[in-house]
Here is the input.
Amino acid sequence: MTALDFTPAPGAAPFPRMVLAQAGAEVRATLRNGEQLLLTLIIPVLLLVGFSLAPLIDIGGGSRVDFLAPGVLALAVMSTAFTGQAIATGFERRYGVLKRLGATPLSRAGLMLAKTVAVIAVEAIQVVVVVAVALSLGWHPHGSPLAAALLVLLATAAFSGLGLLMAGTLRAEATLAAANLVYLVLLGAGGVMFPLSKFPSGLRHVLELLPISALTSGLRTVLTGGGALPLGALAILACWAALTLVLAARTFRWE
Here is the structure.
């Protein structure tokens, strides 16, 4: 009979398991938080339904839901990758959560990776919900889902970099105020609910360079117009992603 070995085997769990465990905790915390749920799911769905059914905006012809659905998808991505992540990370830094997590076997790089995985998981839930609601309202998407997914991933990187840049340099209260202010400004001026053609030409050219405008216009090109991958929108998002992630990496403070 083989003797059982009860010798302790101390040591950290494998790195992928630690990252997935932390990512799962981040997703559960987001979905259990009423404010986060309001920001990431309820507001986008309400905007989609309300503005699709009521003639509150002039989109210049065509189906309102066909115009709104890509914009609301872009808003959902921004709400999770930027606004929600900036606020949550800012308060985690203030209360010392990041400092304590960074001292665990899960390294700081692993923690950031786990947050990224959590953001993508929440975005996947958002996409399923928003698309289901849009389809029920009569949306008829066209084009390549892979092209749309590439735009969303680049936008996620850009918004995440911006959110971490804000959360790692500002006080938590300032991050809360600034993130919500940016959310509202980009909601109104990023082509989400109102066509950028409604703005003066000089201002419109500036607004087109915003990451939310690039994502919104890119998704409309692919999903509504059935066009090829828009290289201009892709380039804008790539530039924002590179700039914000580099700045966040250089300036982020864990305490």
The CA atoms of residues 9 and 105 lie 15 Å apart. The chain has ten helices and no strands.
